[in-house]
Amino acid sequence: MISGDVIRGTIDLLVLDSVLDEPSYGYAISKRIESRVDGRYEIKETTLNSAMRRLERAGVLESYKDTSAAGRPRTYYRIAEAGREFYWQRRAEWLATVEIVSQFIREEGSSR
Question: Looking at CB atoms within 10 Å, which of 25, 42, 60, 83 has the fewest?
């Protein structure tokens, strides 16, 4: 299981990627994230909700009310137009971060 501390700075990227192709609601977003990583990371409901509120305030995520297939009212989230650009910027930033950090990750038994 991946530590929440390690992934904390990338939650926005995970959430935005989860709604990049189609709108979704909170529970489905959390299950999509968990499924994509084969259960190695479980996003907490409070973490997801605060990320979605933060992204809405930033104008990169939009929410709207609709009913589910079962007829229950739900809040759905979709990426805003500004959110697409934000997603691609965060993606580039993450890839650069991985490249930098990988320079400091040693193979087991390596002394460099």
Answer: 42
Flag whether 64 is in a domain: yes
Report how many domains make up the chain. Answer: 1
Domain contains 61: yes
Q: Which of 4, 77, 84 is nearest to 37 (CA)?
A: 4
| 112 occurs within a structural domain | no
Residue 53 belongs to domain with CATH number: 1.10.10.10
**Cα(36)–Cα(18) distance, integer angstroms:** 10
Full domain range(s) for residue 98: 4-102
pTM: 0.84
For residue 64, the cross-strand partners are 76
Residue with token string 């989230």: 77
Which backbone phi and psi does 111 adopt, to 5 degrees? -115, -5
Q: What is the DSSP letter of 75?
A: E
Distance CA 61, CA 24 (A): 11
